[in-house]
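Cross-check.
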Amino acid sequence: MALARAHERSAYIAAVADLRERNAAAQAASPRPRPTGVLRGVYSGGDVAAVVCADGVPWSCAWALTTVACESTNDPTRVSPDGLFHGWWQLWIGHFAPGGRFYGRYVLADAYDPVKSTMMAVELYLDGGAAPWPVCGG
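Predicted model, tokenized:
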């Protein structure tokens, strides 16, 4: 059993490493994807609120605005210094790897789209509350 877990962990680590490598190559080949639609650039508080405080979100508007400002300084193209967290909500790169939570439904570039990243954040929040954002959302 321990050998099977070690093999699964090794496969997962290799998949995440491969995803990071492909992401780095894609970023080197072209600039980071910019959000499309109505909201563009680095967002002011009013623009952020239009998305993260929309009807039906499971959190308070104040919590969402504070969390996004803390996680990404309201920059939907923000990438953490270690490259592991992306977008407004600083979504973990492992979610997009094979076997990850969003694999097959979203791609890493979707982390930079304010609406798509907020949809992913809603899913994470419904399952774990503020736990996916232990520093900024707690």
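Residues 2-128 form one domain. The two ends are 35 Å apart (CA to CA). Passed to J.P. for a second look.
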